[in-house]
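note to self: the first set is below, dont mix up w the second
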Amino acid sequence: MAENQQAAGNENQSQPQFALQRIYVKDLSFESPNSPTVFQEQWKPQVSLDLNTSHNQVSENQYEVVLSMTVTAKLGEKTAYIVEIQQAGVFMVSGIESNQLGHMLGSYCPTVLFPYAREAIDGIVNKGSFPALMLAPVNFDAIYAQALKRKQEEANGESAEDKAH
């Protein structure tokens, strides 16, 4: 019986493990450079969203993932507001191969963080006296796949270029 428990313990150690340990706002900025005159204009903004993700290893099985987002709302040439946020999380990840680890940190973890960033952005926009901003969901799988493809193309282009020289 002790052998069965030990075997089960060994299996658990090799099993992939994932746990969210903490979510936090690392940085948050709101700017409304043209207020209060911008409030007098008809509210039909052009909203742009820039986002980026990064990660770093905190300890053996812990990774910090940071989702950086910049939302800019413009009325014609006037900037109504700019919101910048770095929504971060600490994730425990173990027993996952390196190619799967990249996908977890570059796609799955930002997907977990996005609703928190979206809520923080909506809240700060409301506090700036602007209408609610509900950002559409983002497909981080597609973004990660595009980034991976771009890296592969750059690597192939560089190796072909190196061979030509």
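second set (the one i keep forgetting abt)
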Amino acid sequence: MREALFVKQNSAKWHLYDKLESQDPDVLAERFIEITDDLAYSKTFYPKSKTTAYLNGLASRFHQTIYKNQKEKSNRFVGFWKTELPLLFKKNERQLLYSFLIFVFFCLIGALSAKYDDQFVRVIMGNSYVNETNENIAKGDPFGIYKGHGEFTMFFMITSNNIYVAFNTFIWGIMASLGTVYHLMRNGIMLGSFQYYFFSKGLGLESVLVIWIHGTLEISAIVIAGGAGLVLGNSLLFPGTYTRLESFKRGAREGTQIAIGLVPVFIAAGFLESFITRHTEMPGWLSGAILAASFLFITWYVIIYPNILHRRAKTGNLS
């Protein structure tokens, strides 16, 4: 767009930020992100203009205010999960939705494939896993596989593996998003066939109450990692008004922030799977309560809370 139109669309916001006196690090961080985005655009299309010089000075002032002492750096760290990450969820809600829909689609493909092909589950899950689970079912302990290792050993194995899977799902978005779609396909088909397997054994409800104690957080995080991968891939495919390189830098930064922000979720999921899921004899109401709490947390943190913050940001009140 022409520089005059760019200035007209954003001048009111810039003047508001220029007069901003708040010392709340969350407010400052949000403003800094928006100003640097505008500065990147201005540098791309109007590199020697007064607009670029003005935005550069404004961004520098925000940067100095945010990072002027160690206390604010600490607050900035907390503010990442409190403000920045939820706002990234809001900003990229379309990619998160696409990731969810792709994952659900392939879950259904996996379930249907398992229904019409008796050997499909063995192909996906492996003979050893299926054989062991069949033996556990015969012994009356269908989910005994979650008791096969010590709690701490399982925790480190599961958590590291889940983080690895998530970052793979994100990083392969660099292949024009196709790599991310492939990983969502793999995990979706695996989950669909895995879940259908227990339903076919008459253990559907029991499997949900046991497996989804940890699965709610784990699967949600993988879907969100898929959204991060689509952010990365789509930045190359659809640069919009930015140069392709600048768009990629923005997509890589935002995707990486989302992926890193998932680490605590995977740690929580690993803890639940290692220390809680193994107690398959727990009352159904208790496992249902844990599952519901995980679901409500994800719904609140990824959907509801980001929308609340977004509305506050529009009014200039993020405190």
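remember for set 2: The longest helix spans residues 204-237.
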